[in-house]
Design a protein that fits this description.
Six copies of one chain form a homohexamer. Helices cover 28% and strands 18% of the residues of chain A. By secondary structure, chain A is an alpha/beta fold. Chain A has a single domain, classed as Arginase, Chain A, CATH 3.40.800.10. Chain A has an eight-stranded parallel beta sheet, sandwiched between helices. In chain A, helix 1 crosses helix 9 and helix 8 packs parallel to helix 9. Chain A starts with 29 loop residues before the first strand and ends in a 9-residue tail after the last helix. Chains A and D meet through loops of A and helix 8 and helix 9 of D. Strand 2 of chain B pairs antiparallel with strand 7 of chain C, so a sheet runs across the interface. Bound molecules: manganese (II) ion (12 copies). One manganese (II) ion binds next to loops of chain A.
Chain lengths: 309, 309, 309, 309, 309, 309
Amino acid sequence: PPSAEFVARPSGIASMFKLPIQDSPVGLDAAFVGVPIDTGTSNRPGARFGPRQIRAESSMMRVYNGSTRAAPYQSLMVADIGDVNVNMYDLKDTCRRIREAYQKIVAGGCIPLTLGGDHTISYPILQAVSEKHGPVGLIHVDAHADTSDVVLGEKIGHGTPFRRCVEEGLLDCQRVAQIGLRGSAYSADAYQWNREQGFRVVQAEECWWKSLTPLMTAIRKQVGDGPVYLSFDIDALDPSYAPGTGTPEIAGLTPSQALEIIRGCRGMNIVGCDLVEVSPPYDTTGNTALTAANLLFEMMCVLPKIKYF
Amino acid sequence: PPSAEFVARPSGIASMFKLPIQDSPVGLDAAFVGVPIDTGTSNRPGARFGPRQIRAESSMMRVYNGSTRAAPYQSLMVADIGDVNVNMYDLKDTCRRIREAYQKIVAGGCIPLTLGGDHTISYPILQAVSEKHGPVGLIHVDAHADTSDVVLGEKIGHGTPFRRCVEEGLLDCQRVAQIGLRGSAYSADAYQWNREQGFRVVQAEECWWKSLTPLMTAIRKQVGDGPVYLSFDIDALDPSYAPGTGTPEIAGLTPSQALEIIRGCRGMNIVGCDLVEVSPPYDTTGNTALTAANLLFEMMCVLPKIKYF
Amino acid sequence: PPSAEFVARPSGIASMFKLPIQDSPVGLDAAFVGVPIDTGTSNRPGARFGPRQIRAESSMMRVYNGSTRAAPYQSLMVADIGDVNVNMYDLKDTCRRIREAYQKIVAGGCIPLTLGGDHTISYPILQAVSEKHGPVGLIHVDAHADTSDVVLGEKIGHGTPFRRCVEEGLLDCQRVAQIGLRGSAYSADAYQWNREQGFRVVQAEECWWKSLTPLMTAIRKQVGDGPVYLSFDIDALDPSYAPGTGTPEIAGLTPSQALEIIRGCRGMNIVGCDLVEVSPPYDTTGNTALTAANLLFEMMCVLPKIKYF
Amino acid sequence: PPSAEFVARPSGIASMFKLPIQDSPVGLDAAFVGVPIDTGTSNRPGARFGPRQIRAESSMMRVYNGSTRAAPYQSLMVADIGDVNVNMYDLKDTCRRIREAYQKIVAGGCIPLTLGGDHTISYPILQAVSEKHGPVGLIHVDAHADTSDVVLGEKIGHGTPFRRCVEEGLLDCQRVAQIGLRGSAYSADAYQWNREQGFRVVQAEECWWKSLTPLMTAIRKQVGDGPVYLSFDIDALDPSYAPGTGTPEIAGLTPSQALEIIRGCRGMNIVGCDLVEVSPPYDTTGNTALTAANLLFEMMCVLPKIKYF
Amino acid sequence: PPSAEFVARPSGIASMFKLPIQDSPVGLDAAFVGVPIDTGTSNRPGARFGPRQIRAESSMMRVYNGSTRAAPYQSLMVADIGDVNVNMYDLKDTCRRIREAYQKIVAGGCIPLTLGGDHTISYPILQAVSEKHGPVGLIHVDAHADTSDVVLGEKIGHGTPFRRCVEEGLLDCQRVAQIGLRGSAYSADAYQWNREQGFRVVQAEECWWKSLTPLMTAIRKQVGDGPVYLSFDIDALDPSYAPGTGTPEIAGLTPSQALEIIRGCRGMNIVGCDLVEVSPPYDTTGNTALTAANLLFEMMCVLPKIKYF
Amino acid sequence: PPSAEFVARPSGIASMFKLPIQDSPVGLDAAFVGVPIDTGTSNRPGARFGPRQIRAESSMMRVYNGSTRAAPYQSLMVADIGDVNVNMYDLKDTCRRIREAYQKIVAGGCIPLTLGGDHTISYPILQAVSEKHGPVGLIHVDAHADTSDVVLGEKIGHGTPFRRCVEEGLLDCQRVAQIGLRGSAYSADAYQWNREQGFRVVQAEECWWKSLTPLMTAIRKQVGDGPVYLSFDIDALDPSYAPGTGTPEIAGLTPSQALEIIRGCRGMNIVGCDLVEVSPPYDTTGNTALTAANLLFEMMCVLPKIKYF
Ligand SMILES: [Mn+2]
Ligand SMILES: [Mn+2]
Ligand SMILES: [Mn+2]
Ligand SMILES: [Mn+2]
Ligand SMILES: [Mn+2]
Ligand SMILES: [Mn+2]
Ligand SMILES: [Mn+2]
Ligand SMILES: [Mn+2]
Ligand SMILES: [Mn+2]
Ligand SMILES: [Mn+2]
Ligand SMILES: [Mn+2]
Ligand SMILES: [Mn+2]
């Protein structure tokens, strides 16, 4: 993509990082894809505009990672392949559309970097990813466990995706880590089910006041060499950093911890990533979307083929 | 409800107009009901918070209509009966829940004054209302005709409610008026189907620069003495007056025209009213919700039993 | 003041119209004064920051009136004399402070052009003005009559100033006009008391769809040659034009009508003007304050000494 | 109250945590009460809408404390008893009204959990609480000491409540802790008077970079078994977490520290709590109110009768 | 472009109206082009993000004009050809870049529909257009005349473009109409120079309270069959409709008048159009950009080749 | 300046800290000066309104530093000397105007405390400062190095000022420290050039999780007794604390670290300070400007002549 040294930031169609736009994932090492829904949301909506806003704010990003020396565009063939055409009026049909779209994306080995959309989408994405790679490890960064069984009488929604994934055998439960969980709960022992599945559960309280680099060393060991999916719910961050989200919980992670988590994924066999739950109507300064763009850039910078200078 | 002369406006639980809150419509002449959904929306969401925000801003309203001399609280037994418990994840199930809730409300003769919610809700409400009263006349104030057959492959959504109503015989088509229609269209002859049903279609262009009082005289004649439902989509207003809505169209009606329309319904046999599509996340000043509260107050002030001093 | 042709708009201390700042009104034909209170407000506060925000936005104004050819700075000695030092914690003491400050301002013949502040302030200002000039005529532009007797048990507040003025004989009631009144009311015959005092009451409904130039011709006749005070509550305007105010009422006046009203005061013996109820926290775009700055500019442009080219 | 598992978050009248609404505190262990004033504020107003906005955002809260395993609704009879009917135009009369209202609330042993309103209110609340319990210990979390003697010539306002409390013997000064104090000052030795009374003064600088759990251990020892009142001014938090407040001071506490402070009160004999100074007009994302709702939930979760699972 | 009946509005890369994106104007009848600058602005900046925001909001637009029955996509080959790569740090160099870019666009007969950017850009665009077509007629809709000679010592800026155009002979002055002019002025006879050039000057005061359809009949006669350029400064609209702009002036045109003006251009030989001065940071609801998208759609719908059904 | 104990915060003309306004720096130890430009900005504009907004929010500040016991107004003659009259349309000419204005300010020994404006302004300011004091040490707090050579083909802009300063010998490179640098980069080794000049480069990653007091001890040693200039780009702070800026980068410094840095400059021979890049249109709560006002207050409190009590 063009550098801001030569093309003014406000100039140009708002594709992700001003990357080329194409319809097909063929020939790509990785692709940015949008899934613009919020009909799986329980509280504030707006995540349907997450992909558009993240793309708009992504014009701030330069071409190198100044901290890790990653050179993504010299390492990967990458493009913006647009959005899944979702059904705004039927969430279950939307899930089917997502699954089918991702089956095509991952078929040829392209790694999807997803711009959400609410967290419901990780379920059909993981159906497609797991169909390709088998049960995957999961780095799940979130304020919420998203493993409810039924909410408002429904099995599908942004509070249930990973329950469905476990039920369908899409996850290698011993290689799952959930980071940043917190907030009021539906039961007194809120994460019991998760721990019973073998998940590593890292509550936000364990993260306060410290670097997460040691944690990531442990998690890299936990996930080993098998395929790993990274799912980052922007509400993992404290709402001061990411107000533009639907179900904010106080006392969350910091962006520096987010960077430590993602940079700590370097060396893993990442087969897909998503950044979900950015809700532009509540992102009064645009900085939640900008943070999302930064985190997606960092995700791209830890993909297996990346070269560092 | 308490007058602002005696209870400070910021004080007190935010029920509609600070009216008493009760669960049941029994014994009421009219009731305010919220239907907090936006999963039928095609563009900007947020109408799920419409009822809450309209109630909050309704604390501005005093107890008399200073323009028409209506004295609603000396004329009617009226209360706030809370919200329908909707299913955020399944729009069709939500429609069933609404229909069943309104069957109970209208059963004993209580007139529902609905706080939306997106316009999808008028369909199940009219199912219940028509079941009680037979096919009804309709005053439909909107930027949009809302008579699409299928959108994104779906029959149910905020672009289709009145098509469904016609199909199910809920409307007395010769007694239907649509006011304020405008905007870009899916076909060159955008309102042909509507006119074929016998609807009076009044495009926004016909409303520019003038009072709608003469129009309402004609419409009162058109609807006669039979039951009439009033459905007011806040996007009928120009977006300058009502920015807090999901699918704004420029060059719309003015609040003075809205008052003329509603005040022009005096004398009709109103059996239900709704005010829909208020989306608080886009209502940056709260004034869209405040306008909605005013219009709902005016609707209450033209119900059949109202006395004027 | 400097023209924007020579000094960039964002540049310079934010005095009113970038006029010279001075402590004393001595030698001035007219002076801008701020009265930064909102403790007389019944609903949304914020008017305490009205003077600051109006001054900030006033940097848009140029030095001539392009429509009336008034040349204020070639006609008048005018300056910004800062704000009254109000008591934020005691409204009655604030009124005393305002009255005393204005007694000094009007003593030498300086005409005060006031930046409010909530409407409570017109009462002590009129005490001082009337002490100097005798009972005055009043052009009162507002959504509200502001003639309540008691609100929340109190005699002083933004709903009562003109009742107090009448009681104290500060107004020449036959020379009072109230324009733009509307909204829900505390009694069915909302403006009865006002009409009984001899006020001309022009409800908003009488203003819809038309120019107010004919009205102003009549009012000029009504007020004759005696001293006249102009009190403009920004909520007279429809909230679409002036969202930044505390007690908005829908279906109000337009800015073009506001200009017609103020320009229609040309030829009157204006002895003071105020522009009140601008509440910056609700003025999300700054345009309410900008409108206020425009209206204050127009007020200055109809003062008795103004020359037109 | 209903769980968000069964009732959609946007649905229902906005009482605190969707608790039952009742007029009387009789039979309650604890009650949420609103005191909607901001006329004691020195800078940005808006706290009059604090109670309404906190209630609205409280719909996010679930029924258990997932971190401490507290089960408040299985431990306590608790309800929302509405707001004190304040006098917007006279701060001293408002104080009288608050004191009288709280005398009734505490009479039968109900613990008040107050939604402010500006900090002035803690003075009349403590008059009532101390009348019931004798001089109380105080955990005062704030950016400001709020112990000025006179401001703008006045004894009553949000900068003076605890000075008045000390003068009237309402506090057991050896059992007072003030946490989070900072900012520019009226004198070089800003907290001298406080320390002379025996207060523990913990400036924000002492809190940077660390957990406050050790501090709370010391404070629990300090306050012992006597009655303790917890007064939490939301401006104790850094403005990044709580922008919606009137007198923000940079470099404040974090929400994690706030949780440590409140959770650290477990075991104290809490006789009342307040959360004050939430100003919705400056809370552009609603997250200040949401934070307040969380902190009030945590306060409820450390009341003496609470059971943990 | 895809219809919102089949592709959800939030879905897809934000090109103008979701039109195909291409680099070259070859083969196009018309093309949307962005010129993202605001360095020619005198007051509030932000217009550099105008093109991006207009494209984002343009996703609301459907494929037919429901009012005029124009079918643009069945009439024209049209695409989005991206933005001019401007120099943010040197306005004069930016003008050169714009001129050169437009020389290429108009060379093969493609009609440019420009998304501004501040009004400075009309000058270099008209250099290119006039080089192709000879001196052109001009429909200039604006609050400002934009014919200052020098501002802040500079010849180039958003207050001077049409002065430069006249000096360089780019305009056929007898075929120029300026509509909507108003506001305070740098001299008492603000539009004297313009009238001396032969321009028709229609001040906003002449537009209040009425349809502009008769005016457009006169202007169609004035401009005849020669080439005409349409330059629409969004600040021509009243700030209530278009708050997102840099130099708002009160009492402006309405969107219905804007539609009458543009629809009134039907039959003219339009050779280019621009819509300038949309400033997203001040467009708190997105509706200024949405209005701009509507007006650009209407401009497309009056181009010479358009068919109406 | 008046204390908020005696003059209400909303009251009075918005000069910096309500200090006296004067044209000339003669007789002053230090002066606040505004430089209202943003035409050197690469991304979001708005910094042209930085000085105005910082002054407005500075009304919160009291007269003593409660943390360091500095008494600035008993130590220094200080005033607000207004703004440089910049050329909004030509950045190079603006630089000339700034340089000439600052030559006059520093001539008599007055220390300039600058309210920016984008970071371009530090270049001409340092031309003037260095002309007076010789090459200066520099404490540069920023997310960005601002040492690009050419951006968009231009030498002058907010990404290049310190490159120009080095080229012109204005800096004593061994006494330069850059703190807080981070973000994506134009090359893999982003700060190589800087380190080659002898700068101390402290990346943000080195600052996470800790106090910067030890760093400042080292830097005080590094800069010794020679003249030092302090340039603080508000984007050094994490965007959660300072959203109102043009090129935000995530994971930045905290306000507590900012205070440690500035307070750590006590004892240096400070000859000038600036606080740049505050962009009010993106400062939705005003708290970025408030933070800037606090930091400028702290800068004043470490000037050489300051007395501590
Ligand atoms: Mn999630
Ligand atoms: Mn989550
Ligand atoms: Mn509708
Ligand atoms: Mn509609
Ligand atoms: Mn008033
Ligand atoms: Mn009023
Ligand atoms: Mn306090
Ligand atoms: Mn405080
Ligand atoms: Mn223009
Ligand atoms: Mn203009
Ligand atoms: Mn910088
Ligand atoms: Mn920077």
